[in-house]
Design a protein that fits this description.
The chain is globular. The protein is mostly helical and 249 residues long. The model has no long low-confidence stretch (mean pLDDT 92). The N and C termini lie far apart (40 Å). Helix 4 (95-117) packs across helix 8 (225-247), helix 5 packs across helix 7 (174-212) and helix 6 crosses helix 7. The chain has eight helices and no strands. The protein folds into two domains: 1-93, no CATH class; 94-249, no CATH class. Helices cover 71% and strands 0% of the residues. The chain has helices spanning 2-23, 53-58, 71-91, 95-117, 122-139, 142-167, 174-212, 225-247.
Amino acid sequence: MLALFFFLFGSAMGSFLNVVIYRLPIGKSLIKPPSHCPLCGKNIRWFDNIPIISYIILKGECRDCDAPIPIRYFVVESITALIYLYSYIRFGISLELLTFLTFITLLIPIFFIDLTEMSIPDTLSISGIIIGLILGVFRGIIRISLIGAVVGAIYVLIVIYAGKAIYKKNVMGFGDIKLSAMIGAFVGWANFLLTILISSLLGSIYGIIQIKRGKSSMKSIIPYGPFLAIGGFITFLFGKWIILKFFLA
């Protein structure tokens, strides 16, 4: 029953995160007005606002005007539900469960907002730094969390100024500084370094694929936040195992 609860709770949270992803970048209230179709303006009925299920029943279209509903809504709700379910199975009812759910609930909207808008809202990243450090106190790793946040911020600052000096352009945004500090606060300094390794590898692979497809060039700018988010997600769950297996073996 608890597993089912966390799946349903995750799907509901995913529905709310879709609101965050859509409204936060354009400065709209997350509470008012109620959920509505952006094309025809009709309020979404409660039975058309059931996470995951409603998208399938409506076949991805507004009931009133047949406007397509972005697949992102279904993806975010499904991914969040599955992650919440896995988190409960992995951590049980514990402080680590609360910490990871908080972490991933911040990372998901950051991932999608940076992917589409190429910006990371300070509302999410700065509050994430504060929450990560507070949880670090209760987890008994405040020193590790604090060093992680500082290392995250300093690393990106160095990359920004080094890139500016070498390439005469910004290779990372200042939003990445706060996101890196947030990730460092949650995962600690050692796992943050692993996060950088993973995110750089994923970013390079993505860039190469895009160049091969003719979608971008060596001079194109791609958002780095999504790769940092994936790296942070992986290292929180598997960082200790990866470090012991591949770096300290």
